[in-house]
């Protein structure tokens, strides 16, 4: 998945704005341009350009910190079924999503610049942009642990990597796999809610499936997980004696693999 890059602060005006060039050594028989001892060296201060990268980094850090802190609070409320007194769970849930949105926006701004964004088709293929849209949609739909877990884990991975937290760095692959399995569980929940006509679950399901299909095509981890699931289901589906089921399953499996191969080798 895409991550925000920590940008080192630029030099300030006081450190690099001053010209410190040393005069060339005098050659024998050549006139020198050294100033008299009583003269004062003139130095010109130049204002350094505003450090926008440092500002983006601070926004990125604040966003992930907000997502991690309020995500922890919301997860505690939802996992232990605590009463939503004073709307603490609802507020924390949405602040965690908002923090993730801010951090991902800072990442996108650092990578492309908000004034030079690529076409919408290219944007939709980026996982960060997909999560930005989902963060807004999830804010106005039903609360779920499975919706907030990806943002929480992404913030945990980024902050753990930045702060060199050994426990997080050691389990990066495991945490990334949790995000992938969490998304599969969320698809199942949205399917069930759609079948029972719960609010806007059908719209959420369609949107999430579109993004998940793009990840299968463009994201290696999601594609590998989906391929492993297809391989496991292949043996069970082929046991079904209905020739139509086997025919359509074979066509579907072949189509997915061909699309994955073509998108990754263009």
UniProtKB/TrEMBL annotation:
It is a multi-pass membrane protein. Residues 1-39 are annotated as: Disordered. Keywords: Membrane, Transmembrane, Transmembrane helix. The chain crosses the membrane at residues 59-83, 95-117, 129-153, 174-196, 202-218. Residues 1-21 have a biased composition (Polar residues). It is found in: Membrane. InterPro entries: PER33/POM33_regulator. The keyword NADP does not apply. PANTHER family: ABR032WP, TRANSMEMBRANE PROTEIN 33. This is Uncharacterized protein. It comes from Lodderomyces beijingensis. The lineage of its organism: Eukaryota, Fungi, Dikarya, Ascomycota, Saccharomycotina.
